[in-house]
């Protein structure tokens, strides 16, 4: 993790938050000074309380608002065109 400034964390939203394996991963690693960019799939709860939970697990990091994609929309995502620099815009 030391060589990264930003870390993208993707997960399915389970019961309104991050799955236990993702929580364990976040607890195990040091994200101090990192920017965390969360993204998830969901079926109605959007990001739920996952941003709050990630922030609690990684208090020394900056957690961005993130992106929530409804599960049934995932197939359509590959057809979308993103402007160059899209990731940079998410981080700034």
Give me some keywords for this one.
globular; 4 strands; 92 residues; 23% strand; 4-stranded parallel beta sheet; alpha/beta; 29% helix
Question: Class by helix and strand content?
Answer: alpha/beta
Q: In percent, how much strand structure appears in the residues?
A: 15-25%
- The low-confidence runs, each spanning 5 or more residues with pLDDT under 50, are 83-92
**What is the element string, with H for helices and E for strands?**
EHEHEEHH
Shape: globular
In angstroms, what is the radius of gyration?
13 Å
DSSP helix fraction? 25-40%
- The average pLDDT value, as a whole number, equals 84
Give the count of helical stretches.
4
Extended strand count: 4
Largest sheet: 4 strands, parallel
State the end-to-end CA separation. Answer: 20 Å
Describe this structure in words.
The protein has 92 residues and is of the alpha/beta class. Helix content is 29%, strand content 23%. Strands 1, 2, 3 and 4 form a 4-stranded parallel sheet that branches. The longest helix has 9 residues. The chain starts with 5 loop residues before the first strand and ends with a helix.
Set down the secondary structure blueprint.
Elements: E1 6-12, H1 20-28, E2 35-42, H2 50-57, E3 62-63, E4 67-70, H3 74-77, H4 86-91
Parallel strand pairs: 1-2, 2-3, 2-4
């Amino acid at each position: 993790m030391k060589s990264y400034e930003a870390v993208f964390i993707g997960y399915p939203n389970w019961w309104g938050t991050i799955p236990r394996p993702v929580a364990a991963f976040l607890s195990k690693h040091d994200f101090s000074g990192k920017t965390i960019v969360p993204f998830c799939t969901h079926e109605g709860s959007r990001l739920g309380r996952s941003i709050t939970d990630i922030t609690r697990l990684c208090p020394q990091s900056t957690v961005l608002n993130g992106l929530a994609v409804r599960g049934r929309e995932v197939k359509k995502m590959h057809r979308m065109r993103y402007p160059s620099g899209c990731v940079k815009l998410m981080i700034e």
